[in-house]
Amino acid sequence: MAKISIRNLTKRYGDMTALNTVSLEIDNGEFLVLLGPSGCGKTTLLRCLAGLETPDEGEIIIGDEVIYSSEQKIMQPPGKRNLGMVFQSYALWPHMTVRDNVKFGLDVLKTPKAASDRQLDEVLTKLGMDHLSERYPSELSGGQQQRVALARLLATKPPIFLMDEPLSNLDARLRMDMRVELKRFQSEAGATTVYVTHDQTEAMTMSTRVVVMKNGEIQQVSPPGELYKQPQNTFVADFIGMPRINLVELQGKGQVFSNGDITVDVGWHPKAKNVVLGSRPEDLTISPDLNAVGETYTVMAVLPNGPETIIQLQKGKTVVIGRVGHDSIFESGQEVRVAYTQAALNVYDADTQALISPHNNVQN
Amino acid sequence: MRRASNPLAVLLDQIAFIPFLFPTIAFGAMYLTLFAEPVGPIPALYGTFTLLVVISVVSRLPYSVKTGITAVTQIGQELEEAAEVAGASWGRRFRKIIMPLASSGIMSGMMVSFVGVMRELSLIILLITPATRVLMTAGFGYAEEGLTQLTNALVLIVALLTIAGELILWKIGKGRMARLREKQS
What we know:
Oligomer: heterodimer
CATH topology of the largest domain in chain A: Rossmann fold
Largest sheet of chain A: 6 strands, mixed
Radius of gyration of chain A: 25 Å
Number of strands of chain B: 0
CATH topology of chain B: MetI-like fold
Strand content of chain A: 35-45%
CATH superfamily of chain B: MetI-like
Number of helices of chain B: 9
Number of strands of chain A: 22
Distance between the termini of chain B: 28 Å
Number of domains of chain B: 1
Helix content of chain A: 10-25%
Largest sheet of chain B: none
Radius of gyration of chain B: 20 Å
CATH superfamily of the largest domain in chain A: P-loop containing nucleotide triphosphate hydrolases
Number of domains of chain A: 2
Strand order of the largest sheet of chain A: 7-8-9-3-10-11
CATH architecture of the largest domain in chain A: 3-Layer(aba) Sandwich
Strand content of chain B: under 5%
Number of helices of chain A: 8
CATH architecture of chain B: Orthogonal Bundle
Helix content of chain B: over 70%
Shape of chain B: globular
């Protein structure tokens, strides 16, 4: 069993705190994605798990074994942690053939030759690399190199996979294919996976849970659907989703809030006077019929984008983005009625930037 | 040993550079006085070929060390880390990953030193005795005695050896460039 517990992990580089008392429980077989802007500490966390970085404080437990503890002064080297890793650069050894690259891990484990050969053939065939096994990494395309890195990971069958932006060097189309494949190999192997990326599509499509990080701290840990629908603070709300969520600061009492330009009825009574309302572009109902519900906005820009069209709307000084199907026709300068889907509105406290929901609705 | 971040590594790096600061003839004089008499367990080395080897090695240390360090650090850090995660011991990583990748760089560093030492005169002029002559000092001796033909022959030999060294260096360098290109692609 490979359950991972991270407790109060802190890592500093000089004055900079890369990880600030991070705690996280990762279940057996889970596909956990660490997501965040560059410098948020996601790679540092992964490297601490791998043992390539020594944290300053805290504890890491894999299964029943403490592999790092600042108090007990335990620091297991990477090789003793029973995990496999795919690096962003793939880190294929340029002086070894594909086969030797994959074989290295088996040799280290002193696998008998017959078993080693069988395992090698199996994994190379599975990844469709068997006909390229005598090539050198420099003679392979980016996608093939990626497969070799993956084969190297799979060959020794570790219970834990660590991946550091493994798809970021591939072109967009190949990346999509590899996402599917990666996910398939992971679930076949049943390995607990920690995957670092800054690409939210990757995070949303592959993960069972996403960890959003910022400045070395965890902002939210949620399944992807919940992450999109209920971001716990304005940072997560703003970071997840393309085009971005509309965040508008409004004042009010009771359930109606306004900033002078627009007025929104949230449908319940948040106990805060200054709020930030979050509404995804697709949760705006835009109608050319000026008798429809809502308020009148002016269309500032229309940006068609394949299946959808992005519309920039303005009322007074407030600008919001709406998303409509490609068959809706709007023109810039046109006046339209805009209504916010009440059930999809997220209310944030303007002071703490944290989500207020009917469940935690208490006055600060 | 790698990633010169710990103080010891930095210190070693600095020490290796000291010979670079002295004029070579002064360096020769230093060794002359230092090893003229037995020092502790070290016998008096003056007049032995060993001393010539020692001073040649030490005086060229900065070049060899620097090229060696460059060769090793140019290997992507992740290449070693990948082996570390696979569970390879330090010795295995050094043998299987670092050495094969750095060897050409280290070799070319050695060749730079060799070619330099071949032409060295001022460094060892004070240390040679009739028993331990090297090409350049022998040539110097012939020139003093007016044996122009012998001098010319010697200079030619030195030139040829140097050129041969340079050619080897060039060849290693080319292989190395190709490998670096491979790594980047």
